[in-house]
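A favour, since you know our structure tokens better than I do. Would you make up a two-line entry for one protein for me to read? Write everything out right here, beneath this request.
=====
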Amino acid sequence: MTKHVDYLIIGQGLAGSLLSWELIKQGSSIYLLDNQQENASQIAAGLINPITGMRLVKSNKLDTLLPCAKLTYKELSQFFKQDFYIEKPMLRILRNEKEILKFQQRTQDRSYLDYLETELKSATASIRAPLGIIQQKQTGYLLTKQLLACLKRFLQENQCYQASQFNYQELHFDKGISWQDITAKKIIFCEGYQAIYNPWFKYLPFQLAKGEILTLTAKQALAPELLNYGHWFIPLSEHQFRTGATFDNINLNINPTDQGKNTLLKALIQVMPMLDSATIDKQQANIRPTTLDKMPLIGLHPEHKNLAIFNGFGAKGSLQIPYYSKRFVQYLLHEHPIAAEVSCQRFF
């Protein structure tokens, strides 16, 4: 029998999952297709870090994005009765005089005081930091894999999930839009890096970047804080931690490499020499769907108005996707405008 839905969603990464959640909350019927391949969301650190880069810059629209992200993850935690967002302070090692100067400038700016402690800290017994350490506030990380697993079960229980490879050639535009035995008002592509193969959206300027991540176990008890030293360090338990990530926009595959492993271990041991005896539990790699201007790609295809894209969040997905999923749902249901800086129309 033919199945009729409002929205057919392709991809069960964080973008497709949270968009599905918002549409269902607003009373829309959805059906999600998932190719069940490990995607970037499933291995991502899920870091939310309000102040980033060598210039210590606040993320774009941070004061809007961060409260929305926290509220969304709290709502999901209450619904599924388990925690997904772990809020922890982040220590950042200053690496050069320019970063020290920029830190001093930021602490004179009142708009940064909610996110930065004003006092420079000294190195600790376990952290090598000759130029000092700053503490960032309102930082944390999302347990993305656990959240996606819960949302997958939720969709399965509501009979709106299918494990299936989506074949573009099977999409038909003759009476509305249909794929196999499913008809929909719109199809929304949330495919991550695989959007480069999408015949309708592959023209958008994705700048993909491979990233590798290590999960390790230390012999010593770990400090509880997150650490930023060019790479990141996340303590998962008293002895287990994750570190990452590499950035490679040339070798775009999902194969872990010795080069990636050695890069991460070298950087880690330079700042925390005591971890040179840590053992590797897991090495993972995937491809971030980053874009030319580092902003998401949201909206309808200019010719096929029943095709849409919700993609391109890159490394800031945990921070951005909750807000933009709500905004996109308001556009789809009530035609509220999509902000020009994230609309996919800026590149068509």
